[in-house]
Known about the structure:
By secondary structure, the chain is of the alpha/beta class. It has twelve helices and seven strands. A seven-stranded mixed β-sheet has the order 3-2-1-4-7-6-5, sandwiched between helices. Helix 8 (about 200-215) packs across helix 10 and helix 10 crosses helix 11 (about 255-265).
Amino acid sequence: MNIQWYPGHMTKAKREMQEDIKLIDLIIELVDARVPLSSRNPDIDDLGKNKYRMILLNKADLADERQTEKWKEYFQNKGFYVVKLDSRNKSGMKAIQNMILEACKEKIERDRRRGIKNRPIRAMVAGIPNVGKSTFINSFAGRACAKTGNKPGVTKGKQWIKLNKSVELLDTPGILWPKFEDETVGIRLAYIGSIKDDILNMEELSLKLIEFLIARYPGALQERYQVEESTPLEVLEGIARNRGCLKKGEELDYAKACGILFDDYRAGRIGKITVEWTTDLEEQN
């Protein structure tokens, strides 16, 4: 399965981000905890050199807790400040404010030595589509957030959201998508819905997901669908049969069965499942 995706707006968004990056102290990068590495844009590392960095492992409520801990350790070892997060239910939000201050403590101390008091930390929220940026900003800012308007040196139209006295967020929708040469990255992003289903071969994708689940989470499909975990195709047939996915003449409706499988996976009904493990990195090296 060859998934490639090069949106035309990427160059423009990247250029805008290069301009914005000059104005900020900290990049807050959201990734999907189920695919932490595949849901990162490698461009952000290049653009964010010499900036404080934080990674939020969002949608942690849908991910395997053991794997999320391992990913947290992986990113911390690379120098990132890391918070596990479920921004829909605001779980983990309280830790972020303190972590921002911890990440930028050198900057705060430098300002203090220069006699600059109460200058807020300016943070940019980054991340690829469907990792929950908007939900995070809304949850973090809350209803009481005040837009502070344009500031000197800020391109007209850019808005700063004042969270409190010590933190301001740069509200930029600048969506960036990773260019991926590795088809595995594309497949993982397709699993979580970051690539539109209508451009994908959903049956082929379903068989790959089933194969992964049988290998890494044995028993999960059996428990959810009352099917024997044999070959991926037989499992998909079993799901179609047990969920009444039939066309006229008792023919199995595979498309409908695939839809059920992915709806269940993405909603966490099959279990808390991470489809990218830190051990996958060891296998690649």
